[in-house]
Specification:
It contains 4 helices and 16 strands. The chain has 252 residues and is α+β, with helices and mostly antiparallel strands. The strands form 2 sheets. The chain has a 9-stranded antiparallel β-sheet. Strands 1-2-3-4-5-6-9 form a 7-stranded antiparallel β-sheet. The longest helix has 20 residues. The chain is globular. InterPro entries: T2SS_protein-GspN. It comes from Achromobacter seleniivolatilans. Keywords: Cell inner membrane, Cell membrane, Membrane, Protein transport, Transmembrane, Transmembrane helix, Transport. Its main location: membrane.
């Protein structure tokens, strides 16, 4: 009967070899593993990933499971060992996005992107009924994901030159949804009108349990009789109507 003794040096070499093997394996893991790690019911996900976890690309898909729409441009990523960061690029981003991984979570710099509003119907109701047009501009402050949002403005979503197939008036206006952190879990939402023939306002909040939002829309003082007639169908579609004011909302 043989007894094998492993000294400290041999154990260290064995441990190092195991870690090297694991690291080498991770480096060549297919990018398709990302699809397994993403939430199954998310309205925004990735599809047809190729390459590896460290250098690859994937298509962005919008919509509920089973009815997703794949967007025409792919998102690409590459891990930069010299910077210990992940570079992410997409035609909609206003420049490369460099994400850094640390003990406190994932840090992303201030950045913005421009998205055609015509992609929103892929998310389902009510966007597939409204059939929006125009441009969505999304900008955010430097963030550290994985913790509470800092108090103050976090992100702005601006819908420029908003229009819809439900009205012959185009554009209807420009609208701003502001996300603000509270220094605690969750964030607050504020909807306002920057310009337009419809005045839209709203307040809400979002947290781990979901989103709660209440808003209202009405004709702007500048809207003529003809404008009001052209916007009447859209106003009635937005929510519960009382005279010239519509109340809409979502949440629990």
């Amino acid at each position: 009967m043989s007894v094998f003794r492993i000294n400290k040096r041999s154990a260290a070499l064995l441990t190092a070899g195991v870690f090297c093997a694991i690291a080498a394996g991770v480096c060549v893991l297919p990018a398709s593993w990302l699809l397994v790690m993403l939430p199954g019911k998310s309205p925004v996900t990735l599809a047809d990933a190729s390459g590896t976890l460290w250098h690859g690309s994937a298509w962005v898909a919008l919509g509920p499971p089973g009815a997703q729409r794949v967007l025409p441009q792919a998102v690409q990523w590459q891990w930069r060992w010299d910077a210990m960061a992940l570079d992410i690029s997409h035609p909609w981003l206003q420049g490369p996005l460099r994400a850094r991984v640390g003990w406190g979570g994932l840090s992303i710099p201030a950045q913005s992107l421009r998205v055609p509003a015509t992609v929103l119907p892929a998310l389902g109701a009510p966007w597939n009924t409204i059939a929006p047009e125009g441009m969505l501009e999304i900008s955010w402050q430097a963030l550290r994901l994985g913790g509470d949002l800092p108090a103050g403005p976090v992100a702005d979503l601006r819908w420029r030159n908003a229009s819809t197939a439900l009205s012959s008036v185009a554009p209807i206006g420009t609208y701003l949804l502001r996300v603000q952190g509270t220094g605690k879990p969750g964030a607050t939402l504020t909807l306002s009108t920057e310009s337009g023939l419809l005045t839209v306002t709203g307040q809400g909040s979002v947290n781990a349990r979901g989103m709660n939002f209440q808003g209202q829309a009405t004709y702007a003082p500048a809207a003529t009789v003809a404008d009001r007639a052209a916007l009447d169908g859209l106003l009635s579609t937005l929510g519960r109507r009382s005279d010239d004011t519509v109340v809409f909302g979502t949440g629990k």
